[in-house]
Amino acid sequence: MLQFIVQMTALTCQKVRPDCETFSHLTPTMCANLCVCIGYGIFFIMQIPSWIIFALLGAVAAAFTGFFAKIGMEGIDSTLATTIRAVIGTAYLLVITSALHKWPHLKSLNHKAVWMMVLCGIAGTSSWLFQYHAMAIQGPLSLVSAIDKLSVPLTIVLAVTLLGEKLTTVNWIGVVLIVAGVYCVAFKPAKPADRPGFPVVTQPRAISTPEASTSTRAE
Fold first, then answer.
1. Domain count for the chain
2. Residue 204 gets which letter from DSSP?
3. Number of C-alpha atoms within 13 angstroms, CB side, residue 208?
4. Going by C-beta distance under 8 Å and a sequence separation of 6 or more, which residues neighbour residue 103?
5. Do 125 and 168 share a domain, yes or no?
6. What is the maximum span of the chain, computed from C-alpha positions, in angstroms?
7. CA 124, CA 61: separation in Å to the nearest integer?
8. What is the Cα–Cα distance from 162 to 147, expressed in whole angstroms?
9. How far apart are CA 18 and CA 32, in angstroms?
10. DSSP, residue by residue, 134-183
11. In a domain, 204, yes or no
């Protein structure tokens, strides 16, 4: 069944895009191998805890968020762009909440949860504002996104200090590697003229004097 779906997809793509050679070389054997790979992938995903899958999906969505924001913010005020994003996000969440019938859970809210959600909304919106402004003032998307990921070790430190979560030595090594990775991504070698303590040595130029020019003409 899966092989039939792959073959039908390939045929459909060939009909829609006859000039595309991506699917033109697919043979039944290649489709069968592709089905096996998809099957192994589905089996592997089924063995992963669901929270890891949703975390990976969140990472993919966050990557596309920065990509779309960088492209769409050209010539637009960063605060206005953040406001538009918040409005669209609010409308999207209202639709999802209504579709999943989550409104009855309002009864379970308490004062602590409300205050934490308020603070979370302010912190999240502030993060958007700062990130969008960094990209609006010509900050490269790769560097801004890398520096933004410093929130991961900061969140881990808060979880350990305030929530009492325990981390092993390997976990702390991972935190250090995240910080080192952010530094490596954001690092840009300075030019020799910009490096302190390393003056640029230039070849001295001869200074011409009236006496030297007179002797030269006499010779």
1. 3
2. P
3. 6
4. 97
5. no
6. 105
7. 16
8. 23
9. 22
10. HHHTT--HHHHHHHHTTHHHHHHHHHHHHS-----HHHHHHHHHHHHHHH
11. no
Chain CA centroid to CA 149, Å: 8
Residue 101 — left, alpha, or beta (φ > 0 → left; ψ -120 to 50 → alpha)?
A: left
| Residue 146 near residue 110 (C-beta atoms within 8 A) | no
Per-residue pLDDT of the chain (219 residues; tens, 9 = 90+): 545 555 555 555 555 455 555 555 555 566 566 666 666 666 666 677 877 878 878 888 888 887 888 787 777 888 888 888 889 999 999 999 999 899 988 888 888 888 998 998 899 888 888 888 888 888 888 888 888 888 888 999 999 999 888 989 999 999 999 999 888 887 776 555 555 554 444 454 555 555 555 555 555
Among candidate residues 114, 138, 162, the one where a domain is terminated: 138
